[in-house]
Amino acid sequence: MTGVGQPLGFLCPAPRPSPAAPWTAATPWLREVLHLPSADRPSVPLVTTLYLPPGDGPFPLWVFNHGKSFGGDARAQPRCEPIAFARVLIRHGHAVAAPNRRGFADSGGVHCSHWLNPLAGAGCCARDIWAAVEALLAHPKIDAGRIVVAGHSYGALGTLAYGGEFRHPGVRALVNFMGGLRAEREDGWQQPLLRTFRHLGRRTRCPSLWFYGRNDSFWPIELARSLHAAYVERGAPARFVDVGHFRDDAHGLVLDEAGVVRWWPEVARLLAASGMRGD
Prior knowledge:
By secondary structure, the chain is an alpha/beta fold. The chain has helices at residues 83-91, 118-136, 154-165, 190-202, 221-232, 260-274; strands at 30-37, 45-52, 59-65, 95-99, 142-152, 171-177, 208-212, 238-242. It has a single domain, classed as Alpha/Beta hydrolase fold, catalytic domain (Rossmann fold), CATH 3.40.50.
């Protein structure tokens, strides 16, 4: 299931990005709730919210992969609805899909992960991401040749695993918003995570864009830079963006309307360089 698409680098100059377009309550969009089949036999439903611009398409697609809350049952997490993220991309002519992986919210199945083996957890996420993308390729309004897969926190770790092992040919780039997996209280979780990032970087040539902040309650910025260094050690193309301080906790930047100005200019450059412009 490894993708064979041609990687796109960041070395060529890209056109100047347009500013994030204004959003009002009257801005049109369409919203569908899909039950996509997992890769299991028998399959279970991956409940997915799909946001579409008005019109017939086909539209470039972003697949946004959610994180995992500390403590409690993953099923108790609300269904992933990244409104602040989707609004910007829809205004620029992109579709956004937000699948809920196995064992999260109202999706079926069970998700098992532990900070001692983040590579296994990343692979579990990646399998569900593959299944969601595979099903979305059949949607009549989706352009199967223009896809970006993104993720937040644990979902970003799964996104990087998907890019190395499972990537579809139409996936042109990956975006990592504050990705990783850590222990809640125990010590020693940093080394397994570093080894996982090093392993994932050895297995991909798909370009990725990384966002980390200086007041992230999950990842100190020094650790985030170490994760990036481990990932690019063998030549994986990944550009690191330090978004500085954001509110009380930079970890939530991508889910916050106020965070758009921090990530949109860099994403717009990525879209221009990757031939992913939707408008």
